[in-house]
Description:
By secondary structure, the chain is α+β, with helices and mostly antiparallel strands.
Amino acid sequence: xxxxxxxxxxxxxxxxxxxxxxxxxxxxxxxxxxxxxxxxxxxxxxxxxxxxxxxxxxxxxxxxxxxxxxxxxxxxxxxxxxxxxxxxxxxxxxxxxxxxxxxxxxxxxxxxxxxxxxxxxxxxxxxxxxxxxxxxxxxxxxxxxxxxxxxxxxxxxxxxxxxxxxxxxxxxxxxxxxxxxxxxxxxxxxxxxxxxxxxxxxxxxxxxxxxxxxxxxxxxxxxxxxxxxxxxxxxxxxxxxxxxxxxxxxxxxxxxxxxxxxxxxxxxxxxxxxxxxxxxxxxxxxxxxxxxxxxxxxxxxxxxxxxxxxxxxxxxxxxxxxxxxxxxxxxxxxxxxxxxxxxxxxxxxxxxxxxxxxxxxxxxxxxxxxxxxxxxxxxxxxxxxxxxxxxxxxxxxxxxxxxxxxxxxxxxxxxxxxxxxxxxxxxxxxxxxxxxxxxxxxxxxxxxxxxxxxxxxxxxxxxxxxxxxxxxxxxxxxxxxxxxxxxxxxxxxxxxxxxxxxxxxxxxxxxxxxxxxxxxxxxxxxxxxxxxxxxxxxxxxxxxxxxxxxxxxxxxxxxxxxxxxxxxxxxxxxxxxxxxxxxxxxxxxxxxxxxxxxxxxxxxxxxxxxxxxxxxxxxxxx
Length: 622
Ligand code: ADP
Ligand code: MG
């Protein structure tokens, strides 16, 4: 048989390698930023268009390349960073595999201009799909500018596989965070579609964290420091009360390289044991320095996994260093279970919901003849469950029970309620035919029970209200009909750049629901109008929760953006278990629920009600 094995042509080999190195625009951003760092730059600019799908450009003031190096840099396995295999264990650079530029050039249109001198003598190279298109001498300042356009232009399958701009931008911001946090001395600017997303001056690490994540971060940080023969640790953890239900800011860096390690993550988690609630995650920025010879970075093409010689020791050191810091900075006593709810972050708010025990008992305070609602509000919930550490957002009593009416043709709704509440004051023992569905009882401040012809309906008040609000918000967003209440004094909310860019993207949809933003720049959002359904005091909480949810569960299309927005708003605004509802509210909820398109499930696909038929009841009396 004839020989059949052939060496792959370079451009094919490069495309295959690109598959490993370049998954999405964010991978290109990472590689280019790291190259700029390795070149010793003090100022790096990142410019992207359409979440990197159209353009990713990195401009640095580093050492640049000679004409020959410029051409060679796009060859596979071409690197200036290592020469021998031993060098792999003395790495002080981000790159070393010499494959990023070759891979990127294989799947995009690349234009690079670079100069390694102060005489403005430089080289410009254009490469498309791995093919050299042109190389010429140009006037250029010392440093390198790398433009990557039309990523995956020659691999349609990959291009089609890219997510929405929101998602891809989020990935880019994540990579950007990882690089800028590891290199606080370097100044960075980041422009997205012509607008400035980050402008980070050279700073120390604490300042850098604050510049990236917003001023509110500063007071949350607890410094961590430890030095042993094996590892030097410094950085910060968030105070325990800022632990999030969703994974938030969690960063490990080893020798200035961001890495993932579920093992070391666990070490931090265990240091927080007893200080934070189950299913919440501590935030941390931990910088480890180890002997480069004691780690192997070359175990994964993206270099985000590292093998340590002595992982167990490092685990133990991290754990004790973090524990020590939390103790030393007297953080534990801050966990005051009864403190002012206003001081807390809304993330806690949700946790409490998860901690509810769904036992059913009759609400002895219930009085079916009572017309006015008693005190209603989440403050009650907190004391009723006695769980958590007082981090509950409390609505002013009765602030929004009228909101239950939202979701129905209002006229019809109100008239039916009047009629029915008249009947309620009549007799408890109702005549079947006339009163079917007209009487409601609230059970355990959690369920609404009402009768139907065939028996009983038990409605989960929280989920039912979610369904009502969800459909209302979705409708308002699509027909842009949300009614707004003007605020006398605008509410100001401070946001970090990531949150700000997200909010700018959601602005239109939110305005359709009734929000009015007077301004959205810098670190502050100024809200001058809110949907009628939202109370003034809960606005900041709702917005904060919304942004947090969006960052963790990114929508992939505009449709799902509206859907997610409506779901998040409904989740945060629906009446809670533990809230007393008066008769009128109960009935409005029942009516509104059954007027929705899908009354049986909540926007989160949980059942909203259950029925108990007379037949089933009869069986119990056999
Ligand atoms: P690696 O970073 O692993 O060496 P790359 O393909 O990313 O591989 O880059 C190849 C080479 O091109 C680098 O080793 C470096 O010498 C040069 N290079 C790339 N980007 C820059 C830059 N921004 N400034 C100076 N030199 C660069
Ligand atoms: Mg590189």
